[in-house]
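User: What would this chain look like folded?
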Amino acid sequence: MPEDDRSPEEEFQELIRQLFGAGAEGIDPEQLSRLTGMGIDPATMQTLMQQLQGAFAGGGEIQWDLAQRQALHLANQDGLGVTAGQRTDFDQAFALAALWLSEATTISELAQPPQVLTRGAWVEATLPVWQELAEPVATSIADALTSALSDQAPDDMQGLIQGAGRLMRTVGGSLFATQLGHVVGRLSLEVVSGGDVGIPVMPDGEAAILPQNFADFGRDLEIPDDQLGLYIATRELAHARLFRHARWLRLHVITQVTEFARGTHVDTEALEDLASRFNPSEPEELRRALESGALLPARSEAQTQALTKLENLLATIEGWVDVVTTDATSRLPSAERIGEAVRRRRAVGGPAEQALGSLVGLELRPRRMREAAAMWRAVTDAVGPAARDALWDYPDLMPTSEDIDDPAALVARLQARARGEEPARDAFDDALEALLSGKTGDAPEGGSEDGPAEDGPTDPEDERPV
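Assistant: Here's the prediction, encoded as structure tokens.
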């Protein structure tokens, strides 16, 4: 068919073929001009084609470098760094906080000195964890976008769409990665310290404070900066010490978060509706849909259970940090006011943290932190810091949600152990003893667990007494 006789739809298909061609140098402007018959703005289409070509070069993988670039762009937009005076002030605060903390907990000091970070440095240090947490949702978004575009395409373009599946997954995943970078970049404008969001986003055994955000946090509290800095430094060191001591804890938290995220699926009806009216020249609607959580359906029952477990775990961690920090900073006149301000801030969360929750469907706020702190206080008062901190030595020693509800039983067990008494046996103890002794089955009828019936030996063929 002569080139001039092709329909606008055929022209569009030809453009797509050029886009996917390995040697394509660009799109002919004359071809773009013919797309006006389809109601498509040629300038918009050319921009979209360039973006798609870039995505196709990604080889089908999610381009997480887009997230880093977007996050760093937001984090570094004010161009401010850390002054020498700020670094000195926080180095001194960390040094005194470490001494106070060693009086309140038996968990040892960090191997690496705490850091004073810019917002951009915090992004670079924590982004690998954010990527790990968000990857299951990004994959779900990418797969759903591929499916939705396939459903929207005409029949005569199905072969083309199927052949471009890798490209579509890259576009969807990269779009999510860009939005994740936007949220993490905004989060870098809010967090005051490395442990500020409750989960271990900093590298293992590292503590940090962000002076730029520290100033914003203390602006309306009317509390001297030196007291506020000492409290925040103590809390940050307590959080980092705990995760360095209980090396299993970091994996425990990350695993529970990723398990929750893997259960997240995109609302395909909402995505198809958005795709049917999506205007490439106005991407704000898609950005708002991603950030608001409109594409994520209601939680499943399994997800709700996983979220409850995660909330209890985060509350147990935060409660311990709260009690240890309170004991360590008892010399500070404003410690109680600062502690209450920190607890309120953690319970409510900032705008960026809320956006992150909408993006991945997960809220990282410990709803039961006060109850968990009350449990840790009862344990501390009953058996002291050493026995309390020993509960972090192994995963099976860590307090459960039932212990948070009623600490009395936990306290009684720890007090009995301190007196040298054997803990009360339960069904698990009985089963374990039977397994180790080889008594794992029921005794045969008429006999005992140790041997056959007293009637004498049996014939293996008919199992009757001989």
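Residues 78 and 119 are 10 Å apart (CA to CA). If you want, I can go into more detail on any region.
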